[in-house]
């Protein structure tokens, strides 16, 4: 029982750590685009092409969710995008 609880906690902690890392990446990309460091349209096109190139080799579509979230964030107008 204790081992199962520990395993569940480790899974939740890992999931939270990954989500936090991905959120920071999305925020950084949005900031760089907003400040003009990167060309938002070119970055969106690059990410769209990368997503389509990777899609056939990915068995679990959830693996592409972070990239999909990043694209949605970059496509959204303004700074009021809520990360989920």
Topology:
Layout: H1 2-34, H2 40-54, H3 65-75
Kindly describe this structure:
The chain is mainly alpha-helical and 84 residues long. It has one domain (2-75). It is built from 3 helices and no strands. The chain is flat. The protein starts with a helix and ends in a 9-residue tail after the last helix. The model has no long low-confidence stretch (mean pLDDT 84).
Short description:
This protein is an all-alpha fold and 84 residues long. It has helices spanning 2-34, 40-54, 65-75.
Shape assignment: flat
* Strand segment tally: 0
Average predicted local confidence, pLDDT:
84
SS element count, helices: 3
Order of helices and strands: HHH
Contiguous low-pLDDT stretches (5 residues minimum) are none
Helix vs. strand class: mainly alpha
- Ends apart, CA distance between termini: 32 Å
Radius of gyration from CA coordinates: 16 Å
Sheet having the most strands: none
Which range does the strand content fall in? under 5%
Spell out the key features of this protein.
84 residues, mainly alpha, flat
């Amino acid at each position: 029982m204790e081992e199962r609880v520990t395993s569940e906690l480790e899974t939740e902690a890992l999931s939270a750590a990954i989500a936090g890392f991905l959120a920071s990446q999305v925020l950084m990309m949005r900031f760089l685009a907003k400040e003009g460091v990167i060309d938002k349209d070119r970055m969106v096109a690059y990410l769209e092409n990368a997503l389509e190139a990777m899609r056939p080799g990915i068995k679990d579509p959830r693996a592409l969710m972070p990239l999909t979230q990043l694209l949605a964030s970059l496509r959204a107008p303004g700074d009021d995008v809520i990360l989920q």
